[in-house]
Design brief:
Elements (H helix, E strand, L loop, with lengths): L1 H4 L2 H16 L12 H4 L28 H12 L1 H21 L5 E13 L7 E16 L4 H67 L5 H16 L1 H18 L18 H9 L1 H4 L20 H4 L1 H22 L4 E12 L10 E11 L7 H67 L5 H35 L12
């Protein structure tokens, strides 16, 4: 017993234990490098913020005061394929954490077997022998330099990044559904405007036709107004095509086939009558119009808040943390490692029987391993890991700059489109007045048809532009919600 206690194995273990305690705490890890912009964010936004603006709520889409939009978003969150794929990536990352964590524990294995062997020497007879064995073995690598711990840290950071990516997909999906819904309402509103303009053109055509029949106007006026009427009718099919294509895109976001999307009980929980009332004929009946939606006033908070309110920025930082841990693991691989092994077993000369005078064996071992020459493979891996880390530092910086630009652009779009809509409404009032006066003057023979045609064209363009500006204003509000992270807040800082 004394001889075993003074063996080289125990001496090596006795040396490894204090080394583990001293050096294991000094694992080759470093603080995650962050770009300068992350700690030196601007103090305020350049664009003006409305004084009555409200903070972004987690269910911010309800602030548009639409009954259909929350149901559509709920359906998309329940069945969208991209969201399911992102959730599966989170599950894969969770499994990778468990895989990486297994390296911190001993590996235990058990094996048992039995065999009968027969031999026959040259010119002799057959002889046979039986044997059974059972072996229990264990191995453990002392994480002397923190390589395994760094691998676990990298896996955990990758898991956080995948969770943040899931939130990014969710935010993108919600804003995509809202944008498609607003586009459908806008296109159907523009179709209503186009059909109303056809009625106006047809009314003017009746006046021209009457004047031509009474000899008060020429056939040229008749042809000009008929061309204007046909041109207005030709504007209908492209709008109908855009409306159908946008509806199909919305169906895809909801995880639905486009066929029959407007009929029957759909994924949003809207029955056929309700859906057709609000989607197919909403603008003609006045049930749902783009002008009936509320444009929320959003308070952006401070620029520094973006670091914890945008999931894409949180993901970029988590990826950087994972890269930093990978650098530590690559550097630790250059240093020696200690492997401890042990085994114990029984052997018998009888098949499937360990009760007949079995022999017992056990073994303990320790190995110190150091790579002497590998052609520069390990150092190359360090260089790759360091380069990836530097690249991710720049990617994080780029993401922060892009996020700041997103918010500034969205704030500018919100204020400018509001001003533009107000001016366009004033233009529309004057365009309607101009057409009414032009028709009166044409009936009385004061002005020619060209004046009426110009007034018609101005009115039609003004109404269509106003519908598009209203859509731009709603989409600018969506862009601001998305740029601010959609009410998401990081539960725990990643550093």
């Amino acid at each position: 017993m004394l001889r075993w206690l003074t063996s080289p194995f125990v001496a090596l273990v006795a040396l490894a234990v204090p080394l583990t305690l001293v050096l294991g705490a000094c694992a080759i890890t470093g603080k995650t490098p962050l770009p300068a912009i992350a700690s030196n964010m601007p103090l305020a936004w350049d664009e003006r913020v409305p004084s009555d603006a409200a903070a972004v709520a987690p269910d911010w889409w309800r602030s548009f005061n639409s009954e259909e939009l929350p149901a559509l978003i709920a359906a998309a969150l329940d069945a969208n394929p991209d969201l399911v794929i992102a959730a599966e990536r989170v599950r894969q990352a969770e499994a990778q954490v468990r895989i990486a964590g297994a390296s911190l524990f001993p590996q235990l294995s058990f094996g048992a077997g039995t065999a009968r062997r027969a031999t026959r020497p040259d010119g002799g007879g057959w002889s046979s022998s039986d044997g059974s064995s059972a072996t229990f073995s264990a191995s453990y690598e002392i994480d002397l330099w923190g390589r395994n711990a760094a691998g676990v840290s990298a896996a955990e950071s990758a898991l956080r990044a995948s969770r943040f990516d899931l939130e990014t997909v969710r935010l993108t999906l919600v804003t995509g559904v809202a944008s498609a819904y607003f586009q459908i309402l806008s296109l159907r509103g523009r179709l209503v405007i186009a059909r109303e303009n056809i009625l106006i053109a047809d009314r003017v055509f009746a006046v021209v036709d009457a004047r031509v029949r009474h000899g008060a106007a020429s056939a040229l006026d008749h042809a000009r107004q008929q061309a204007a009427l046909l041109a207005q009718r030709a504007a209908i099919p492209p709008l109908e095509l855009q409306e159908r294509q946008t509806l199909f895109a919305l169906a895809l976001l909801l995880g639905r086939a486009p066929e029959g999307f407007n009929t029957g009980l759909n994924a949003a929980g809207l029955n056929a009558a309700h859906l057709n009332e609000n989607f197919s004929a909403a603008d003609s009946t006045g049930a749902v119009k783009l002008t009936g939606l509320t444009v929320p006033r959003v308070a952006p908070g401070l620029p520094a808040d973006l670091l914890t309110r945008r999931p894409d920025l949180a993901s970029a930082e988590a990826q950087l943390s994972a890269a930093n841990a990978n650098v530590a693991a690559a550097r630790a691989a250059l240093l020696p490692g200690i492997q401890l092994t042990g085994s114990a077993g029984l052997a018998s000369t009888v098949l499937l029987n360990f009760l007949n005078a079995p022999s017992a064996t056990w073994a303990l071992g320790a190995a110190l391993v150091q790579t002497i020459f590998d052609g520069g493979r390990l150092r190359g891996q360090v260089e790759v890991a360091v380069s990836r880390e530097r690249g991710l530092v720049e990617n994080y910086r780029k993401s922060i700059l892009a996020a700041l630009a997103d918010v500034e652009s969205a704030l500018a779009a919100n204020s400018r489109t509001a001003d533009q809509e107000l001016l366009q409404e004033q233009i529309l009032v004057q365009a309607r007045r101009a057409l009414r006066l032009a028709e009166i003057r044409y009936r009385e023979g004061v002005d020619d048809l060209l004046t009426v045609l110009d007034a018609q064209r101005t009115l039609f363009q003004t109404e269509d532009q106003l519908a598009q500006i209203r859509l731009s204003r709603l989409q600018a509000s969506l862009g601001l919600f998305k740029a601010l992270g959609g009410g998401w807040v990081m539960a725990e800082p990643s550093r």
